[in-house]
Amino acid sequence: MSTVVLTLGDDVSTDVIYPGRYMATVLPTETPQFAFVDLTDFNAKLRAKQVPPGSVLVAGKNFGCGSSREQAVSTLKGHELIVVAKGFARIFTQNSVNLGLRLVEAPDLEAKEGDQLEIGATEVVNASTGKRFRIVPMPPARQAIVDAGGLIAYTRKRLVEKR
Amino acid sequence: MGKTVVEKILARAAGKSAVSAGDVVEPAVDLVMSHENAALVINQFLEMYKDTGLEARIWDPSKVAIIFDHRVPAESPKTATNQKKIREFVAKHRIAKFHDIRGDLGGICHQILPENGYVRPGAVVLGTDSHTTSHGALGAFAFGIGATEMASVWALGTALNVEVPATIKVVVTGKLPEMVGPKDVILHLVGRLTAEGANFKVLEFHGDTVRSMSTSGRLVLCNMSVEAGATSGIVPADDETLRYLREEAGVTDALAPVQPDADAVYERVIEIDVSQLEPQIACPHTVDNVHPIGKVAGTKVHQIVIGSCTNGRLDDLEVAARIVKGKKVAKDVRMLVFPASGRIYAQALLKGYVGDFVQAGAVVMNPGCGPCLGVHEGALGDGETALSTTNRNFKGRMGNPTSDVYLCSPAVAAASALTGVITDPRGAAAGGAR
Lengths: 163, 434
Fold this sequence. Notes:
The structure holds 2 protein chains of 2 kinds.
Chain A: E1 2-7, H1 14-17, H2 40-47, E2 56-59, H3 71-77, E3 82-85, H4 90-99, E4 102-105, E5 116-119, E6 123-126, E7 131-134, H5 140-147, H6 151-162
Parallel strand pairs in A: 1-2, 2-3, 3-4
Antiparallel strand pairs in A: 1-5, 5-6, 6-7
Helix pairs in contact in A: 3-4, 4-5
Chain B: H1 5-14, E1 24-25, E2 31-34, H2 38-49, E3 64-67, H3 77-92, E4 97-99, H4 109-115, E5 124-127, E6 141-144, H5 147-156, E7 162-163, E8 166-173, H6 182-193, E9 201-206, H7 208-211, H8 215-223, E10 232-234, H9 239-248, E11 268-273, E12 280-282, E13 290-292, E14 303-307, H10 308-311, H11 314-324, E15 334-338, H12 342-351, H13 353-360, E16 363-364, E17 385-388, E18 404-407, H14 410-419, H15 425-429
Parallel strand pairs in B: 2-3, 2-5, 3-4, 5-6, 8-9, 8-11, 9-10, 14-15, 14-17, 15-16, 17-18
Antiparallel strand pairs in B: 1-7, 12-13
Helix pairs in contact in B: 2-5, 6-8, 11-13, 11-14
């Protein structure tokens, strides 16, 4: 069971997730401190480790639109957050697949802060309301990279095989 | 069954006779580009080779371009150190297509690549920047990726697990009215499609308006295709593409333009008649919040920005310079001009545009991304409003989450600089701007 710790609307851009002014910070070990830095209360909770790993962000359509900056993914991955949204922008989706941030696409999702979600393979159950929502399955091309543990491991295997 | 341009390009690059939307391919990559985020690409690249016993080698350094543009000159010791590390990597790996911070050869990646002839029709071009879609203006399939995916391409020379995108055909017809241009067309289209309307899709541009548009204008269309979520925008190469590459980019070798089949399968077709189009404005805080200028004319602005990978080219500067020449930027307004490259800056000097701007009270800055991504050079104060020819108006985009950013064409930006409020340039053309 995962707790919804933040709800957001449609078109949440990478500038909101990880503002451009922190882009000189690139390493996945250093980016987590700036997650949603302009949402000061939520960022403070993250920094204070008050958000347990496996907590859920709920968002609307087109989450992660905008920049290709991978910091927008590593900053969330660093806190082991799960994003459940009605939809995701393409580059953000691929970056998440590559870095192992868990995205769940549930186009009809209804959930509010504090709700408990049970995230299965094909549906999300909102245990707090009893409602069930279908999950759009991940295409095999992306799932293969997720199953390998991310793109670094996936490519490394290819490099070794090529030798 | 007929094929779209991108299906044909991916079939060629993947060594297959034909591919269709939904197929998964592993295309050979013709050109890759990174800017300052090469610092992260390098980190991920070295990580990939860890414990393999292999030497970390770029598959083909001649196909790698690195351009400093996001923070030039460096705004902090941290950025300067990132740039220093990238320089060292560039030297070690013999990357020749490297554009450092220079007044002659430097500039914004999405201008440097076309003007140096690095992008060819039919090529597969990947960049660690979402606006890599720009290069579809030359008939290439160009799209943005993250740093880890780039590291993988550096290692292998191919892009892994690429899903062939479906294509939306966009047919633009009619003569653009006075003071209405490519920026207004793409803002209008993004407004119609919405910010996710083309997510995972390609926008393939057709119609007599696009055919008669310069490469500079086509770069505007493709640049902002990503604002509708598109994987890429693409204009099938034609005589204008060849003219640009031969005459402006100095390309002398053989070119192989790719055309779609007459019976290509499109997901949908969108038709736009621009003959009555008005200047368009994208209002805060999403790029698809687009309205004709009348809806927001008169809105007070504090900063005008002309430049960026969208609208920092010579024709953009020309339009703006003509409007402000001999006039003055309004009191309490800051007008910042960022030519897209050193070459454009030099041309603008020769044409007298730089003088026109400076005498009007504008500040002409060095080529680069400037304030577009809120890093340095022109941050906004609390509650201030910017009117900008850039491509994004997300909350906090120009560095301050309490500010507002409106997006517009160079003509609207210049006309508004003279008045201090969002101003219809069609009045300015008739001498209406005060």
